[in-house]
């Protein structure tokens, strides 16, 4: 079956899965409701019904799951493409750590608006990504998967210590940062998403617009140049888009790891390595994965719940171990 035909099958299936999980996210929790109640709450939101209020209260985390999951899935697939590294992920490459430092700095300096925090997170994520890539590029053999992972771990550890130092100096910022750092959906409400929509839209457009050229980059820089591609410009634009997505997603709900690592590998199993299909499907699969992880986290330890950032780590860490152990060489 051709990649195009696989895509024609996988896309509607994933759309259906995302819709079902979105309904499940609205229905499942400490007080579960039926699909009819969910539909009634969405179509008649002004009704002062207890079940309706419960559903609408869950709407923010459902929207966050859709937006953040899609952003991280697309960012991860793009990072794996531009680095030709099957282990690339916003968390592994230090992007989340860079965003975290920028966020706590912004909080310590009194920045309260979400767009301001999102801008700070994007800048911090971009700086961290550039540093990690530079470390890997200067190592013997260039930016290989293992050197990128090690560089990301080193930069992440250093930035984590910076976060701890700022938290000690500014206890007031620590209170807000500690809850944010766990990776929790829906803490800011539905109205927070439009405030960062411009970052998400621009980042997604930059990534999706480079899909055809990313296919050429997978053949090697020399081949891509011979085909007329501007390799450096494409890498910069794609990296900027991926960092904007990852940084904004981190600012919105906190650092959530491994979604960008796991999702592209799962999608390649279904539609192959063609980035024209891989990137949009990674958005759908990322949204599905994050919504599913959030639903499991809500129901796994009643009456409490497990933060979605912890659930994705429980899923993604074993996958990374398998990839490293088997020395997977995925054709990006």
Keywords summarizing the entry:
transmembrane helix; ABC transporter involved in vitamin B12 uptake, BtuC; 332 residues; disordered C terminus; cell membrane; single chain; Iron complex transport system permease protein; mainly alpha; ABC_BtuC-like; 14 helices
Description of the molecule:
- The structure is a single chain.
- With 332 residues, the protein is mostly helical.
- It has a single domain, classed as ABC transporter involved in vitamin B12 uptake, BtuC.
- Helices cover 77% and strands 0% of the residues.
- It has 14 helices and no strands.
- Helix 3 packs antiparallel against helix 11.
- The longest helix is centred in the N-terminal third of the chain and has 34 residues.
- It is globular and about 65 Å long.
- The C terminus is likely disordered.
From the helix content, strand content and strand pairing, which structural class follows? mainly alpha
Name the CATH homologous superfamily.
ABC transporter involved in vitamin B12 uptake, BtuC
Count of separate DSSP helical elements: 14
Low-confidence stretches are 328-332
How far is it from the N-terminal to the C-terminal residue, by CA? Answer: 19 Å
